[in-house]
Specification:
The chain has about 190 residues and is an alpha+beta fold. The protein contains five helices and ten strands; from the N terminus they run αβαβββαβββαββαβ.
């Protein structure tokens, strides 16, 4: 029964990572900087909306004519649709086209995976959409001399799963796609 739970948790981790990799979008969070551009509106108003916005601590951005719009928790594509629909439903614009992307110039957009123990350089590893558990361990300087990679724990959203990194190293097709805030514990 315990093996069955472990296998189910492992599959959930893998499938969650696969879905993340498929669309490549991360949900926005407070202090993220986003670049917003809009088309299909009068040229005189484009410059007042097209800019870099910082998601407030309350999780919103403030836009011309519509005010506060919830951004935190939404992926950029969903925020785009929400803004377009709001402008149309309030009859401000008839056919706006909005593009939202996470601004890569810093200012709170960094996301991390945490190596808790068992590597030569424990601590945060910068997240990217292609980061896997083996790549994170490599970025942390590899395993420490006393690490036990066969008993690695991956913590995601408060759920712990045991992962055998020796098996994954031998068969890289089983490597696990990571998500922001994942924690990796390699016992020593």
């Amino acid at each position: 029964m315990n093996l069955q739970k472990t296998l189910i948790a492992f599959l959930v981790f893998c499938l969650g990572g696969f879905a993340q990799a498929q669309n490549g979008e991360l949900a926005l969070k407070p202090n993220d900087r986003i670049t917003l551009s809009i088309g299909g509106i009068p040229d005189s108003e484009v410059g007042q909306i097209n800019k870099v916005y910082t998601v407030s601590d309350a999780g919103t951005i403030n836009l011309l004519y519509i005010g506060e719009v919830r951004a935190a928790g939404l992926k950029p594509s969903l925020l785009q649709r929400s803004i377009e629909q709001t402008y149309v439903s309030r009859e401000i614009y008839t056919r706006p086209t909005v593009t939202v992307s996470i601004d890569g110039t810093g200012g709170g957009t960094e996301r991390w995976v945490y190596i808790v123990s068992g590597c030569n350089r424990n601590g945060p590893v910068a997240y990217s959409s292609s980061l896997t558990i083996l790549k994170a361990v490599a970025a942390a300087g590899g395993f420490s001399p006393f690490a036990k990679p066969s008993r690695t724990k991956l913590i995601r959203n408060g759920t712990t799963s045991e992962v055998n990194l020796k098996d994954i190293s031998a068969n890289p097709t089983r490597d696990i796609q990571l998500q922001p805030e994942d924690q990796i514990i390699v016992p020593e």
